[in-house]
Amino acid sequence: MYFCIIILFFLLGTIFGSFYNVVGYRVPRGESLVYPSSHCTKCNHKLGPLELVPIFSYLFLGGKCLKCKTKISWFYPVFEFTSGVLFALSFVVFGFTLECLLSILFISMLLIIIISDYQTMIIPDSILIIFSILFIVLKIFIFGLNSIWISLFEALLAFVFMFLLKLLGDFLFKRESMGGGDIKLLAVYGFVLGFPMSVVAVFLSAFIALPISLILLKKNSSHEIPFGPFLAISAIIIMLSNIDFTTFINFIS
Fold this sequence. Notes:
Blueprint: H1 2-26, H2 56-60, H3 75-94, H4 98-120, H5 125-143, H6 146-173, H7 180-193, H8 195-219, H9 228-241, H10 245-252
Helix pairs in contact: 1-3, 1-4, 3-4, 4-5, 4-9, 5-7, 6-7, 6-8, 7-8, 7-9, 8-9
């Protein structure tokens, strides 16, 4: 039964992952999520139900459009599979609880941000606002109304920390070191993860980003690298590690 629930969460994750890919692509461009319906970007062929099944449609079609035979990017099934794994891990870590729902919502927001920031260099305010409202409601149910004020204060601290870090980066590099979306995103981290772990997320993301950035800049020195995806990856790691600041300090000491 336990294994069946894990599979169910995985399948649910692949379905939502497919949708999040659309959200991350269209929202920052100001496009509708409903129209036009999913289609081949090469020949505009409208995808049928059997062409929209996460992962399996890609395998069944051999990674090509059914009509024009244009190759479909491998990124789509990989992203859907990753989303499924992350949903399943949320259940494994938190069980059938409200904390699990909080984890899934948090990861959902981060998956959308990865797509959005990577493709457009934009972290949409609308995504942050919608998910922040959901986080507030869930935290009230999980921890009570009084906990919200503490979480809001930690969100403010995280925002100020990231803003000061941006000012320092701008001074050192003589250019804009990060966007406003990154700063607002860290405020959400402060609310969900707490201020100390949001700081950890920043340094962890920098550690992850460094080797990848060096490789990309070596290939193209003028290439702009969004920081949002790295912030998202680090926050996912922290969320699914299910550690708090005290545990982290005990671990490194």
